[in-house]
Design goal:
- The complex is a heterotrimer of chains A (343), B (338) and C (289).
- Chain A contains 13 helices and two strands, in the order αααββαααααααααα.
- Chain A has 343 residues and is mostly helical.
- With 338 residues, chain B is α/β, with parallel strands linked by helices.
- Chain B is built from 14 helices and eleven strands.
- Chain C is mostly helical.
- Chain C has a single domain, classed as MetI-like (MetI-like fold, Orthogonal Bundle).
- Chain C is 74% helix and 0% strand.
- Chain C contains twelve helices and no strands.
- Chain C is globular and about 70 Å long.
- Chain C starts with a helix and ends in an 8-residue tail after the last helix.
- Classes of the chains: A mainly alpha (343), B alpha/beta (338), C mainly alpha (289).
- The interface between A and B is medium-sized, with 32 and 32 residues.
Chain lengths: 343, 338, 289
């Protein structure tokens, strides 16, 4: 390792250095081993958690086979279970949450790193992070008592007026008349009812904004000032510096932050359970009620036994699978992006 | 510096571990229905005896699962355990307090107790067969009451619950169609309507949606001023939900011939009986796993049956009728041998 | 031509700035909205008794035992998760370059991030609560330790993820400079890299703390809850989120008020903690130039 020791150094010094080198190497090895052990602990935790759900859910998988994945039944009195509706609900709510949370978080991070005066940055970023500190049960209560009624009286009628075939104001919009199928995604049996997949997605968006925005802000700050200053010196506008310098420099870390938010959105339990309506009817409409994997488990675990409990554990295992697939797709997209840019 | 902090932390931790010896603490888990009253009782009981009873509402099913694992001293369930399960695990069960479940509605101009419903109509509404409040069958039960002509929105529980268990059990008893199509349980596949999480979710939705109907524990309807409906009971009489009608149901239910108190009180026969009355069973090992814990647990329940009833009444629970209390104490003497 | 290009660029810039300010406004609006609701619904419950009396007394009581319990559970959770998480994250960022294990663990960590918390609680119930019941003959079953471990499992992936990201953003020149001076790698990692990424790592720990301080589901079958005060981590331990959850389900409006008050206290607690941590750790900010 240290091959450059010259021959005219006194022997004692050389011996000392050799000892130090040996010590350093040993310490390095110990240190690396310790770190690796910790990393392996993450592996063990996940494998343990996933296998335990698979083990506890084995009855449901054995009983229903592959049909478990495609069935929309959830009937505890007749012991018929299928994972389709909760899996769909989980993916849909997380997608809706990302669609709203990513741009807003980006805007917040941009504001905090480039626009806001220095004295404002600390307080505003602490305030945004405070959103992450609100317990999810409070999001649930707020969602149930305040936000869902708000959705029911303002957002939902507007959406239905513009996108559904059965609008409250009676005038079917141009869009619905000319774009096929769009109305299917915005129909609702109970127009005055605020809970549903869309509402759950919005609540999730608010919950994950602090996660995504604080990681984005943190990584934006690590961009070397000299890079940004060179761009400014060449006459770039703030937006151009951010879009052409900051974002490419921090891209993988930004996507890491988005995964952090996505992870929370996929697994969130209490907040969703209060506002999604918890029904098991298969529907393409985001304005209808539905259920997610985590909310189903939280709602039914306390009272479940036998095959029902097993089915709950089986969908918990499927959540691991769904996350795996979602992350895999994201990874492949990233790789394609990287090859396209030739980096 | 860091190592010193670590040492201090270790010392603190060690001293904390050392102070685990205390008066007997007993632990129970299960139904959320009895959580308020058990919590209140435990405070008074701890002041009297120094023994602490720690009860947590994890759900009836989870309570039963935990008592089977032996992690807790007693379980509490809104649904009775079957005779074979009790024998298999060496468990016994007895009722604790009684409460009622009431249909609540949101209808403009209709005051609490003004609307009358019978079991069949209620089942048809929840089956989705009666879809409007102007339905002639409803009008026939409510002569002279001006019911607005709006769509009925059914609200049910979305989580598994003892409230749903008793409600659907009642519907199964009064409607053959319900009994064959939906059956009863803590969670069922609801033919119609929207789901609210917990009593609070159902009452919130009923308040928000005009023309809606739901069902909640009586304490909810009373404390939050939601208008409830009168019901026609098994004897054909009209009754309003109240402590008296719940007590009447508990008193007229046929406990004498129910082995291990395995009896669901819905649709009780008495003239004054409220049709959807329920209790929560306390489940304990017949052969004690920990004698000192079991002794305190029995002392607690004896104390609560004999002295805790005023507190229960203040929380809108109904005390068990005296003959039933005697039957429970006889059951303890006969089945629980330490 | 160049003037119009200049104008479009300026318009684009102004537009981006406006949208960015609007986004921040939206975030703050939701924060204010939720805080306002918790405060206005819970203000009647914010009395001294809230901090001095225990939950067993219900309306006449407070949340003191739950606050103490939450504090103990969160401290245990963070004390377990932070060293492991930071070390695992460091390994991923600094040591896993040439191994295939690195990307695999990074990937699995992302999956762990979204594991439903109730499942992690069940896992800890199986590997900690049940064995401790057998080992102690039923004296120790549910415990603060078990609850803390469940919370640590939730905090861990958040800390791993942020540590990994932050370390990888430390410029390579810093590493090369140190290595060329003959600094051993462990010293480089501990004294230079982690120090350089410190503010980011602290953010990660705070996010993790914020997340676990609001968890209910994993505690039901691990810490279990307690209506009385306890300081013993081997005892069944109450927590604020669990009490808030129980109290929102309660028929009595007075109890519901206590739930909102508890939520307000919990939120303020997380805010105070993150302010203190920021103040302590941001004194010496390392620039990456």
């Amino acid at each position: 390792m240290h091959a450059t020791v010259s021959s005219n150094v006194p022997t004692t010094a050389r011996a000392e250095e050799a000892a130090r080198n040996a010590r350093d190497t040993r310490n390095d090895r110990l240190f690396a081993g310790l770190l690796k052990a910790c990393a392996l602990l993450v592996l063990i935790a996940l494998i343990g958690a996933a296998t335990s759900t698979l083990w506890l859910g084995r009855d449901a998988f054995a009983t229903f086979g592959w049909g478990f994945l495609t069935s929309s039944a959830w009937d505890p009195t007749n012991n018929q279970y299928g994972a389709l509706v909760p899996v769909m609900g989980t993916v849909l709510t997380a997608l809706i949450a990302l669609v709203f949370a990513v741009p807003v978080s980006f805007g917040i991070a941009l504001f905090l790193t480039e626009i806001a005066p220095n004295w404002l940055r600390g307080p505003v970023s602490s305030a945004i992070e405070l959103l992450a500190g609100i317990p999810s049960i409070i999001y649930g209560m707020w969602g149930l008592f305040i936000f869902a009624p708000f959705v029911a009286t303002t957002i939902k009628p507007w959406l239905m007026n513009h996108f559904s075939a059965d609008p409250p104001d009676g005038q079917v919009s141009w869009l619905v008349q000319h774009v096929p199928f769009i109305a299917k995604f915005f129909s609702s049996e109970y127009p005055f009812f605020g809970a549903g997949i869309f509402t759950a997605g919005l609540v999730l968006a608010v919950m994950i904004i602090p996660f995504i925005s604080s990681v984005m802000r943190e990584v934006f700050q690590t961009v070397p000032t000299r890079l940004k200053e060179s761009a400014y010196a060449l006459g770039s506008s703030t937006w151009e510096v951010v879009w052409d310098i900051v974002v490419p420099y921090t891209r993988t870390a930004v996507i890491g932050g988005i995964f952090l938010g996505l992870g929370r959105a996929l697994g969130e339990t209490m907040a969703v359970a209060f506002v999604i309506g918890n029904t098991f009817k298969f529907t393409p409409s985001i304005l209808e009620t539905g259920s997610t994997i985590a909310s189903t488990i939280a709602n039914q675990f306390g009272e479940a036994e036998g095959l029902q409990k097993s089915a709950l554990m089986a969908i918990a295992f499927l959540l691991f699978v769904v996350t795996f697939i979602v992350l895999l797709i994201a990874r492949l997209m990233l790789r394609r992006l990287a090859t396209k840019e030739g980096s | 510096m860091f190592t010193r902090k670590l040492c201090i932390a270790a010392l603190v931790a060690a001293s904390l571990f050392g102070m685990s010896a205390q008066a007997t603490d007993i632990t129970g888990a299960g139904s959320s229905f009895v959580y308020p009253v058990l919590s209140k009782w435990s405070a008074t009981y701890a002041e009297k005896t120094g023994n602490k009873l720690n009860y947590q509402s994890v759900g009836s099913g989870a309570g039963i699962a935990q008592i089977k694992e032996g992690t807790i001293d007693f379980g509490a369930s809104d649904a009775p355990m079957s005779a074979e399960d009790l024998t298999k695990f060496g468990l016994g069960q007895f009722p604790s307090v009684v409460g009622g479940i009431v249909p609540v509605v949101n209808l403009q101009g209709i005051a609490a107790g003004q609307l009358k419903l019978d079991g069949k109509i209620l089942a048809d509404i929840y089956l989705g067969k009666v879809a409007r409040w102007s339905d002639p069958a409803i009008a026939a039960l409510n002569p002279g009451v001006k019911i607005p002509d709006v769509k009925i929105t059914v609200v049910h529980r979305s989580d598994g619950s003892g409230t749903s268990f008793n409600f659907t059990n009642y519907l199964s008893k009064v409607s053959p169609e319900w009994a064959s199509k939906v059956k009863f349980g803590t969670a069922v596949e609801w033919p119609a309507g929207v789901g609210g999480k917990g009593n609070e979710g159902v009452s919130q939705y009923v308040r928000q949606i005009p023309g809606s109907i739901g069902y909640v524990e009586y304490a909810y309807a009373k404390k939050n001023a939601i208008s409830y409906a009168q019901m026609q009971n098994a004897a054909g009489k009209w009754v309003e939900p109240s402590a008296e009608t719940f007590a009447a149901a508990a008193a007229t239910a046929d406990w004498k011939s129910a082995k291990d108190f395995n009896l669901i009180m819905t649709n009780a026969p008495g003239d004054q009986a409220w049709p959807i009355t329920a209790t929560t069973w306390i489940i304990m090992y017949k052969k004690s796993k920990n004698a000192s814990h079991t002794k305190v647990a029995f002392d607690f329940f004896k104390w609560s049956l004999e002295n805790g009833q005023p507190q229960a009444a203040s929380l809108d629970y109904v005390p068990l009728p005296a003959p039933l209390v005697q039957q429970i104490e006889a059951y303890w003497a006969a089945e629980y041998k330490n | 031509m160049s003037a119009s290009l200049y104008t479009t660029r300026r318009i684009k810039n102004v537009l981006a700035m406006i949208l960015s300010v609007a986004a921040t406004g939206i975030g703050l609006l939701f924060l204010a909205w939720i805080l306002w609701e918790t405060l206005s619904q819970g203000i009647a419950g914010l009395k001294p008794a809230l901090f001095t009396k225990i939950t067993a007394y219900r309306e006449e009581g407070g949340l003191a035992n739950a606050m103490v319990g939450s504090l103990i559970l969160n401290v245990i959770g963070i004390l377990i998760a932070t060293p492991i998480g930071v070390m695992a994250g460091t390994w991923l960022a600094e040591y896993s370059r040439r191994s295939r294990l690195g990307p695999t663990i990074r990937f699995l960590n992302d999956i762990l991030l979204s594991a439903p918390s109730i499942v992690l609680g069940l896992f800890v119930y199986t590997i900690i609560v049940l064995p401790s019941q057998w080992l102690t003959n039923g004296d120790v079953t549910f415990s603060g330790i078990a609850g803390g471990i469940a919370l640590a499992l939730i905090a861990l992936p958040v800390i791993v993820r942020t540590t990994d990201e932050m370390l990888r953003l430390v410029p390579g020149t810093l590493r090369e400079a140190a290595l060329s001076l003959g600094v051993p790698q462990w010293k480089l990692t501990v004294q230079i890299l982690i120090r350089a990424a410190r503010s980011g790592i602290v953010t990660g720990v705070l996010l993790a703390l914020a997340r676990i301080s609001g968890e209910t589901a994993p505690l039901l079958l691990t810490a279990f809850g307690n209506n009385f005060m306890t300081f013993n981590p081997l005892d069944k331990m109450p927590s604020l989120p669990q009490v808030i959850y129980d109290y929102t389900k309660d028929p009595s409006p007075d109890i519901n008020t206590l739930a909102w008050a508890g939520a307000f206290v919990l939120t303020m607690f997380v805010l105070a903690l993150s302010l203190v941590a920021r103040f302590v750790f941001s004194r010496s900010k390392v620039s990456h130039d």
